[in-house]
Design brief:
There is one protein chain. It is built from 15 helices and 15 strands. The strands form three sheets. An eight-stranded mixed beta sheet has the order 3-2-1-4-7-8-9-10, sandwiched between helices. It has a five-stranded parallel beta sheet with strand order 12-11-13-14-15. A two-stranded antiparallel ribbon has the order 5-6. It folds into two domains: 189 residues, 3-Layer(aba) Sandwich (Rossmann fold), CATH 3.40.50; 194 residues, Rossmann fold. 39% of the residues lie in helices and 15% in strands. Bound molecules: ligand SAJ. Ligand SAJ binds next to helix 8.
């Protein structure tokens, strides 16, 4: 049985490790977090993701997966470590990829296959990873194989998408691409398309940039419609009846580990881009837009308190990385608001989290940031007696506004605030 050593047991690395470990591979996962290693070695999942717990338990019970702080020799190495943006410089922080490559170089043997999955700027494999691996004395394409295999799975549906989505694999050479295709075909049921290293990296970044730019466009539409008294949600629904139009949804801003920085990775090798940066700026400005909408909704109230419903960066996940909720809370505090937050998905956050009832006690406005499914079951009648003033600002057009209005709430929606006195 072939052995895989995978670096990074996070949102992508652990599901990937589990999928391989439930096929004909034995897997060792390497991570820098001791708590993650302890959990995986107990067969318990360090974060929430539908279906992952069962996969991990099965692989663990069959002795096919274990975790360690240290790399070891293997037939296949996979790099799935985080690649955050360094906030001071606005440049990709590739430290973890660098360290993983150095770790691999120490154990690399003739015939090994090395796969990079982490999202990186387009020429990282060629300019950074290969030179580090070749410090081993082995040559890419001669002694070892190398491929870039970006993932496309969406958190909250990761397992399903890892299995069913099509996949693009970029090989250092044909043989590297074909070997990687064989490997992933052990669990991928979608098509697997082969290309070269740089094209595969470009494709990954283009996908997330496309989404970020389209969300920015939807956000800009929302800002325009607010000014002219049109409901953006109705307008988008109607525009999307055009066979070649698919406008995204406006919201409180873009969060998560991917869309907030991947588009900027594309800019590292050019000074010639305008729309990508502009889209990032538009999406980053949405928390300020949310705050000004709250200001309008509850102007005149002294010592205002607002309740943030939903901290996670998107629905039905416990992930708060780059969440727009954090920026909205900080802006609101700086503007003199008392802020209480509630999120049934999230365990740890840099602000205290309250139960739904506590978060609404004496509040002047509920601000829905995350459209968690469970929020659709909130009974507004039950909350109305707890609130000091009954206001709701829905940044996702998610709740049943008629129901909330019936319970006495004044409801405003992003992209439709002109219907203020509904
Ligand atoms: N959002 C909007 N409006 C929309 C869609 C999303 O405001 O119409 C917001 C979300 O609320 C969230 C942010 O954008 O804050 C990002 O969420 P998302 O669901 O668009 O994407 P991620 O970051 O969870 O996952 C993306 C996916 N990329 C694409 O859909 C092109 C996923 O397939 C990738 O695998 C993932 O990035 C990644 O790891 O790169």
């Amino acid at each position: 049985m072939k052995k895989i050593c995978i670096f990074g047991l996070g949102y992508i690395g652990l599901p990937t490790a589990c999928l391989f470990a439930n096929r004909d591979y034995s897997v060792v996962g390497v991570d820098v977090k001791i708590t993650v290693i302890e959990k995986v070695n107990m067969g318990s999942c360090p974060f929430e993701e539908p279906g992952l717990g069962n996969l991990l338990k099965q692989a663990h019970d069959n002795g096919k997966i274990r975790a360690s702080l240290n790399p070891e020799s293997a037939d296949i190495f996979i790099v799935a470590v985080p690649t955050p943006m360094d906030n001071n410089t606005g440049v990709a922080d590739l430290k973890s990829v660098y360290e993983a490559a150095e770790g691999i170089a120490r154990y690399l043997k003739k015939g090994n296959l090395v796969i990079v999955e982490s999202t990186v700027p387009p020429i990282t494999c060629e300019k950074m990873v290969i030179p580090i691996l070749e410090k081993s004395g082995l040559k890419a394409g001669i002694d070892f194989y190398l491929a870039y295999c970006p993932e496309r799975a969406i958190p909250s549906n990761t397992i399903n998408e890892m299995i069913n989505n099509d996949r693009v694999i970029g090989g250092f050479d044909n043989e590297s691409a074909l070997l990687s295709k064989n490997l992933y075909a052990s669990f991928v049921q979608g098509n697997i398309y082969l290309t070269n290293l740089t094209t595969a990296a470009m494709v990954k970044l283009m996908e997330n940039t496309y989404r970020d730019v389209n969300i920015a466009l939807a956000n800009e539409f929302a800002i325009i419609t607010e000014r002219i008294g049109v409901n953006v949600w109705e307008a988008i629904k109607l525009a999307n009846k055009h066979p070649r139009v698919k406008i995204h949804s406006p919201g409180p801003g873009v969060g998560g580990h991917c869309l907030t920085k991947d588009p900027l990775f594309l800019l590292e090798n050019t000074t010639g881009s305008r729309i990508i940066e502009l889209a990032r700026d538009i999406n980053d400005a949405m928390p300020r837009h949310v705050l000004s909408a709250i200001d309008k909704l509850i102007s005149g109230i002294t010592n205002p308190t607002i309740t943030i419903l939903g901290i996670a960066y998107k629905a039905d996940v416990d992930d708060t990385r780059e969440t727009p909720a954090l920026k909205i809370i900080k802006l609101a505090e700086n503007a003199g608001y008392k802020v209480k937050a509630h999120d049934p998905w999230v365990q740890k956050f840099e602000y205290p989290l309250y139960s739904l009832e506590e978060s609404c006690m004496d509040s002047d406005c509920l601000v829905l940031i995350t459209d968690h499914s469970i929020f659709s079951h909130i009974d507004p009648q039950m909350l109305s007696s707890k609130m000091r003033h009954r206001n709701l600002f829905d940044t996702r057009n998610f709740l049943d506004h008629k129901l909330w209005q019936k319970a006495g709430f004044k409801v405003n929606v992003i992209g439709n605030v002109s219907t203020k006195d509904n």
